[in-house]
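Researcher: Quick one. two chains, 282 residues in total.
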Amino acid sequence: MADTKMKDVLSEMAGELAGTWVIVVADSDGMLLSSWSSPDNKLPPETLGGFIQTINESIDAFSRSTTGFGKLDDVIFSMGFSSVVIKPLADGACFMVVNAPKTVPLGMIRMAANNYISRLEQSLPGHEPVTNRNGMGAVVR
Amino acid sequence: MPDGSMSELINEMARTVTGLWMVTLIDSDSMVLGTWQSPDNKVSPESLGGFMQILTNSVAIFKQSPVGFSNFEDIIFSTTVLHQVVKPIAEANCFIVVSAPRNVPLGMIRAMLNTFAPRLEQSLPGRAPTPRKDGMGTIIP
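Model:
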């Protein structure tokens, strides 16, 4: 149930970020919880999950260093023709990873990540369920 | 001579965007090549060392993975308190690190880095020196 909700939220987020290749939610060990990928995506979502594991050490070191005071909001890797945005969920227990070509503005990715983070957190197993809505958007009790 | 122009460039960078806390140029072993700090800066450039070394290792692993198929342009760490932007220069032999509070726009920091990166690269010892100019801005042969 939680996975279905998460997939819905990821699909909705992808719909607002035209051109995005892949959106992944993985735990801190790089295990995938849910993913969405476009037909243009060339990287399997599992690879991005593995990338979390690689980068998690840096994130951890950053958070513990004097530089990383405050709660980590997001980490952005900009490369020649793509960007990877990593945003921690549920106090760093999970991460959302967005991989998109450079044509997708970074600001749009960050804003979408900020706006969808609470819904994704709610859809995590054990968290509060997302409010059920009918076709008209009204809350179903 | 290269250090003189490097310090000048770093100072010039810091003046371009208001509110920055620190602009530092470090090598891949985290040795400081040049730095500028505002009076509000609370983290010394030397304390970046440990974090940068872990980051460098992660970048090396990342490049070997299928995700890191192209060159890095920059890495942005955002916390609730600050932005920290790391930009590799000179084939990732050196890194420009900028720390700024959250109220400094990230786009401004990235634009500044993109503008100054080639000039800082040239100011590295052993690289082509930046042309010397007289008080009127004319290049001295």
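Chain B has three helices and seven strands.
Researcher: Thanks, that's what I needed.
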